[in-house]
Predict the structure.
Amino acid sequence: MRAAQLVGYGEPLQIREVPRPEPGPGQVLIRVGGSGACHSDLHILSGEMRLLPELPWTLGHENAGWVEECGSGVSGLDRGTPVAVFGGWGCGRCRVCLSGQEQLCNTMTWGGIGSPGGYAEFLLVPAARHLVLLPDLEPAIAAPLTDAGLTPYHAVQHALPRLVAGSTAVVIGLGGLGHFGLQFVRELSAARIVAVDTSPAKRALALELGAAESLDPATDDIEAAVKRGGEGAAAVFDFVGAPSTLALAQSLVGRQGMVVIVGLAGGSLPYSFMGMPGESVVMGSTWGTRNELEEVLSLAATGRLSFHVETHSLDDINDVFDRLEHGQILGRAVLVP
């Protein structure tokens, strides 16, 4: 089969012929219908995050497609069944896995990191429990929902009890994850939404998606806009995670508010009793659960989410990642083998 593989950190991906996997007992082979180009893969491609067990390697953790072949012991999945792939593959035996939070088990077992991913024609999934039947969604459209949709959904769930009527939620970064995050705040809460991004196009998109205000951190007084009633934000979702955005998040959160760090841009937020509003919380948020993915797909199937997805041939993968690195993709790019 054809696969786009990383052969050396900092080098372009190469389209190579590799053996097609054969599913063993309990495993399922998926014919890939779409694999999302995720910003976190940029950190791996550059060598900033050297997580891969070996090179060459096939990345791609946002996947959807059709069942191609099942190993022995797998039932109820016919060839051609459309599925989304939950990529937070855990051991299935530890405390977090048994609680349904396999994405917290071990990063090194995730699809695309610990096992070859979906930038290929076929993807081997280690267990049928990682598959979610697709509702009325095409795999190429559903693929980004397995991370770009699931990760912000999980992040918003942390803060929902705080997002009551009259409260304010701030969404920093309106890229692949942030534009979904804004919609989940809109759909699941009564909070007023303030969006923050340096890109005029992304700020315009935020207004279309339901933000009350969409502001430029370089020119707008964001603190004044958020604290209009004298109280800070009930929740700030940082989908960038840079030093500047985390400093902004700290300045915006209110008493008993929550800062949820999702982005991987390398920043940190110093927390102290005097440096943060009373009883405020700072937390990270990692991917999401398999059941939450089912909820995301169900919500998407109702038509209440706006999909900003562009599809590209697998042959264009290096151009796609170059555009992604330079902030030129509005929403999410999906690679189709």
Notes: The mean pLDDT is 95. The first helix runs from residue 39 to 45. The longest strand covers residues 28-36. The CA atoms of residues 96 and 104 lie 7 Å apart.
